[in-house]
Amino acid sequence: MTKPYTEQDLSNIFDSDLIWRRKELSDMKSAICAADSVSRHALLRALVAMSYAHWEGYVRTCATRYFEHLTLRKKTFSDYERQIYINSVLGRLDALYQSRTSIKERCTLINDILDGAGRRFAHINQDLIDTRSNLNTDVTKDICLICGIDSEHFEDKRTFIDLLLLKRRNAIAHGQQAFIPVEEIDDFVANVLSIMRVFRNLLENKVYTKAYAA
């Protein structure tokens, strides 16, 4: 697997991952148009499930590879914006919240947090890039926060993400008769690709402008 050592490497990874997803959605649209009336109904339902899978998968891939790019730079937390360091302690804070720890353990954690900014940023906790198999607008905004990008770009897409994409997908996953009218498939797929590109562009622009730096 290609590693995103440079900005161009990361951009190429984003491109290649988007290309195959876009091709699969295009192929599905073609299959729907060519299908008979019986097969078409099933394919319309499949298009919803596939579209959501690509939306969730692309967000997870882009975020994961973005943080991989930063770790490959082999810099310390102090070289990056504060959110990078906050991310590194969120998992430990969550574990502390869920368990009964001693005063000594709590003090150790606080000292580690206070003294840790000089350590090298070497990995991202994958639990932070958690789509929860339910990537609605609010979950997307949480992931944007972890990545340090502006989540307001998705607010005007809330109806599409939460209702037209996710609600339909959940209905299909639970065996309900949900599907897209055939006359809407072009706009539907265009909107899915649009929100994928927005997320990608926000990360890519941050990398090229080095907005992640302290």
Description:
By secondary structure, this protein is an all-alpha fold. It has 2 domains: 7-75 and 125-209; 76-120, no CATH class. Helices cover 68% and strands 0% of the residues. It contains 7 helices and no strands. Helix 1 runs antiparallel to helix 2, helix 2 packs across helix 6 (158-173) and helix 2 runs parallel beside helix 7 (185-209). It is elongated. It starts with 6 loop residues before the first helix and ends in a 5-residue tail after the last helix. The model has no long low-confidence stretch (mean pLDDT 94).
In short:
By secondary structure, the chain is mainly alpha-helical. The chain has helices at residues 7-34, 37-71, 82-98, 103-115, 137-147, 158-173, 185-209. Helices cover 68% and strands 0% of the residues.
Give the overall form: elongated
Would you tell me the overall average pLDDT? 94
What are the secondary-structure elements, in order, as H or E? HHHHHHH
Oligomer: single chain
Number of helices: 7
The major sheet is characterized as:
none
Radius of gyration: 20 Å
Structure classification: mainly alpha
Residue ranges: pLDDT <50 for 5 or more in a row? none
How much β-strand is present in the residues?
Answer: under 5%
Summarize the amount of helix as a percent range. Answer: 55-70%
Q: What gap, in angstroms, lies between the N and C termini?
A: 29 Å
How many independent structural domains? Answer: 2
Please report the total strand number as a whole number: 0
Short key terms for the protein model shown above:
single chain, 2 domains, 7 helices, mainly alpha, 214 residues
